[in-house]
Amino acid sequence: MSRASLDKQPHEVAAMFDDVAAKYDLTNDVLSLGQARLWRKAVARAVDARAGERVLDLAAGTGTSSLPFREAGAYVVPCDFSLGMLREGKKRHPGLPLTAGDATRLPFADGVFDAVTISFGLRNVQDTQGALGEMLRVTRPGGRVVICEFSHPTWQPFRTVYTEYLMRALPPIATSVSSNPDAYVYLAESIRAWPDQPGLAARLRSAGWERPAWRNLTGGVVALHRAYKP
């Protein structure tokens, strides 16, 4: 079994997700205490995909996150660099155009998507700014990006409880439901090291996105950022 380190070497991260692919969606539901499904619905509302639009769903894993966009009538491209995740996704959703790709070197032409979204994947990319720049490149002018990522709870007492859950409770729970519990130790560490809500908004601006704004979900455990291409 493998786990990545916080320097986020791409081959280590890909191998880690290959290991957890079979039980990934189930494990997320358990570890998030059922909130993961609510977060996916919030992402779908924020992207607001319309019939005929093209949506790029990065870090799509098994493709579960892409289904609401297809149901809205958009043409969605689920993209991930874990081949294990993509194989599992192909078994479950054979109709989705699952695509292998690195967020820092996307295999798409300039300006071809109306919206780009990534959920719980940006913090696993070694070059965050490079990925935000690539998302900008493949989005049409006026198009949008939606990022759903773990963040920093806004209420200090809750933040303390949450941090204790991440570092103490999460690994034992993962042991009972995941095929690679060590991977969830990395995930807990990566969440703690991730920038807060204003910090990610600043990174979006630096990459060239305009009007970044965010909405906190579950008290700031997760933040939903949206911005637009000029």
From TrEMBL:
Its EC number is 2.1.1.163. It comes from Streptomyces asiaticus subsp. ignotus. It holds the Pfam family Ubie_methyltran. PROSITE patterns: SAM_MT_UBIE (PS51608), UBIE_2 (PS01184). Methyltransferase required for the conversion of demethylmenaquinol (DMKH2) to menaquinol (MKH2). It catalyses: a 2-demethylmenaquinol + S-adenosyl-L-methionine = a menaquinol + S-adenosyl-L-homocysteine + H(+). Keywords: Menaquinone biosynthesis, Methyltransferase, S-adenosyl-L-methionine, Transferase. HAMAP family: MenG_UbiE_methyltr (MF_01813). This is Demethylmenaquinone methyltransferase. InterPro entries: SAM-dependent_MTases_sf, UbiE/COQ5_MeTrFase, UbiE/COQ5_MeTrFase_CS. Belongs to the class I-like SAM-binding methyltransferase superfamily. MenG/UbiE family.
